[in-house]
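Human: My hope is that you can spare some time for a protein that puzzles me. I am handing you a single protein, as its sequence and its fold in token form. Could you go through the record with me and say what the backbone is doing? Take your time, and here it is.
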Amino acid sequence: MAKWGQGDPRWIVEEREDGTNVNNWHWTERDATSWSKGRLHELLVGITVENEAGRCEISELKQVEGEASCSSRKGKLIFFYEWNIKLGWKGIIRESGAKHKGLIEIPSLSEENEVDDTEVNVSKKKGDGDILKDLMKTAGTAKVREALGDYLKALKTEFTVGMILPTKAMAVQELTVKRKLSENALQASSPVALGVRIPTVALHMTELFDTAIEQLYRIFTVKDLVQKFSKSPAVLEAEKGGKFQMFDGNITGEYTELLTNKKIVMKWRCRNWPEEHYAVVALNFVPTLEQTELQLDCKGVPICEEENMKFCWQKQHFEEIKGLLQLTTLNG
């Protein structure tokens, strides 16, 4: 038995000021079922294949049954997913113009098998058109497996943003880097900005919302509305210098400029970004005919987080806000 204060270091949990799953030691789990269903629909529906004989397209996600989740333990991510998927496809033979329909069945997409080994069954309704069935069995199956691979890649990257927190060792390493930058700056007699210098990119996105400009602005500045579209607790001080925290603390930042119903500028960061590194996010609210256009300009996104950032705003902000607006309209 170890003496007091001399325990096995594997069992020592580091201290963090926020007290949140320190050292990534404790078991945490995030349900990926709903997210996965949307992602699978996005990746599979619309797939097209063609050759000199004809053209086929996956036109419908008829069934997606199962579940998916991601767990974190001891700083490692563990994935579980098991899906039974049925897709509808349609095709046309070039020479005759005849149209045919069929099914694609994926009885078991799970972590137990590689994507290339996943069973993909193609069938067609009675009648002629086997030439289209053969096209779907070859080129179609290859594209379906490619899409399934893209889903698993997104599950292990985009969905897991913020699940692994920086450890004390990472913080010390980043602090060392910042000290070296400061020393170099002093020697060159030129100031260096706080934070870790990393390669970054800028993003520009636009989205139309079927609502008045005043309502859309409120959704970004009123705590109750932020909590509704993010489906999680939020901390919000919508004033210059005010702090905000969203998505269970995965997104944090500070308001630097607010022009009512016109513009919001924020220092914005995701929890798994290098410590003290913030992007600058500017939201411009532009009135259009019976709609509001939201223009998003973001500078300083870590280059390795570009796709995650796009996904965060498109799926977790824009689409969820549209769902909230639709629900508000129905209830109204």
